[in-house]
Amino acid sequence: MLKYRKTVYGLSLAISFVLFFYYLLRNYDINYFDEIGYINFSKQILEVGLLNINESLRTYLLPLLISLVRIFTGVEIQYAKIIISILQYVLYIYTISMIGRYLFLYTQNSIIYYSIIVFGFLNPYLIQSTTLLLTDLLASCLITISIFTTIFNSFDKDRYYYIVLFCSFSAVMVRPSSLILVPCIFALLILRKIMLKELSYSKGIFAGLISCVVFIPQLYNNIHNYSHWTILIHDNLYEFQSRLAATYLKYGTVVIPGQVPQLVFQTPFTFDAGTNIYDLIFKNTPAFLLTYFTHIFGVFDWGYIDTYIKDFYPISRIVGSVFLYTYWITSVYGAVYFIRKGDLARRDRFILSSIMIPFVLYVLFIGTTVIESRFGYPLFFLFLPFFGYGVYSHFMVVKEKMPNMIWPIIRICLVYVLVIVLVFILSFWLDSTTDRIYWFNY
Fold it and tell me: Quick one: pLDDT at residue 75?
């Protein structure tokens, strides 16, 4: 069994690496928009030092990492980008492997383990994102490591406190929106103490205080340049995004020659300038409901694999979406199976709560912002355990009906086909709101 598990792991990793190499060749020597912003920020760190930066829009940690790599690679950014891409890919593979290992140790179920490894390693959206100088993948991995360490480690060693808190704080310094999940992690630590009696408050507080060192450069930058006491960015980016969220159903970036870069998925409603998503609750409730739930749909429907869209009608748009829709459907099956599998033990209830609380809170929060496809990355990581349970539940249904297993297989396949077709229709309708993408006429 161990040999078979290593074979599945190795084969999945090999295919994953081929995909990584493909996207690396496409992206290593060209940078767009936000990438250029982070590169310029890293250049500023190299020129004036970390404590002399003046930046109101971005946190410092990713630019610091880029600048450290550039010390060794020189001014040619493509070499630094290759190294950063490899580091991000290694972190991505480690994060998936960690989730698979935790679930195998907890369940001793090889099917759940194989499912997590295969679908985790082969997510083309996440693999593509490792080859970009953006914050989404890095922050998602760090916050996932923090959450799953909180859920599955016994905290019998002091280092686990530092892993949880340092990774979560670092995720905030990579991408400030990760802050929404930090209170969840604090809540899970307290919940673990209450339900499982496996945690020391004093050790957690001490580790938290030590881990706060990661905030110092950002805090100093804000105080020194803007007299603003905050560990986040000086500019109120959330206020800006909540206004865009009132009129944008989704947002993307196009790098097709001759095309306008901004890809706006436009709401059919019109509002006064300055209206934000919260104003719609009282001004136009139907518009709020349509906009808000379309945002949530967009968090799960990632659309184009390429973060920077290079073609409006690539076959990868279809293949990637089928992969993603299959993942979400199976994960829902798995969540239902986990809940209904019988009298849940205390640890089962803790695991269920620890996955669902940050998942639901993140979805509710992110729905109030202007959505880009990459905002859904943390949700994929969080639901991987349920995907494993979903595959196992299908296996058990088929096994119980043997030798008449053909009908259960047909029923399951029909459900998948029906849901995937319906979601594709919604997804293509959403694309059509750009007035630039017309899948129905393609």
Answer: 78
